[in-house]
Amino acid sequence: MSDEGSFKGLAISDGDEDVQAAAPSTLVRIAGRVSTLAGVFSVVLGVQSFVNIRLVGFFAIAPFAQLLFGLGLAICGWMLSRGRGWAAIGSAALGAVTVLSTIVFSVTALLGGYVTLMPVFVIISGVAGAVMAGVGIGECLRADKARERLAAQGLDLGL
């Protein structure tokens, strides 16, 4: 018996390979959790900005943007940890947008005399989550296709 198509001496059918392909890897799970954490940090930064400073003009939308991006990133990160392809793309994109908006907001706030460490946490976790989500996009899209094949066979894993 050849080792090709077997797992520890057991024969693996195409359906079993799809089941294994549908489950997210450790990298994808970690990417999802880091992206979720970045989203939560962004929401905390938005709430902190509402409570501590009063922004006028164009920058008055910054706390709203932090809340919106943070909520979207937290949701995409949560679904990324379940191996969803759309969530991997969303986490990578929202992570980058969140980091860029946080950098702009942080520089503006520092020039105005407002100092906080929360943007540092958002930037570090946002960059890490976006990079890992970007690396996991292909794997998540393959997992989506495997789940579709399993659903066509009448097998819903709930993943």
List the helices and strands and how they pair.
Elements: E1 6-7, E2 10-11, H1 14-22, H2 26-52, H3 62-80, H4 85-111, H5 118-152
Antiparallel strand pairs: 1-2
Helix pairs in contact: 1-5, 2-3, 2-4, 2-5, 3-4, 4-5
How would you characterize this protein structure?
- It contains five helices and two strands; from the N terminus they run ββααααα.
- The protein has helices at residues 14-22, 26-52, 62-80, 85-111, 118-152, and strands at 6-7, 10-11.
- A two-stranded antiparallel sheet has the order 1-2.
- α1 (14-22) packs antiparallel against α5 (118-152).
The H/E string reads EEHHHHH
Q: Report the span from N to C terminus.
A: 32 Å
Poorly predicted regions: 5-12
Mean pLDDT: 85
Number of helices: 5
> How many beta strands in the DSSP annotation?
2
Structural features:
mainly alpha, 159 residues, 74% helix, single chain
Task: Briefly say what this structure is.
By secondary structure, the protein is mainly alpha-helical. It has five helices and two strands, in the order ββααααα.
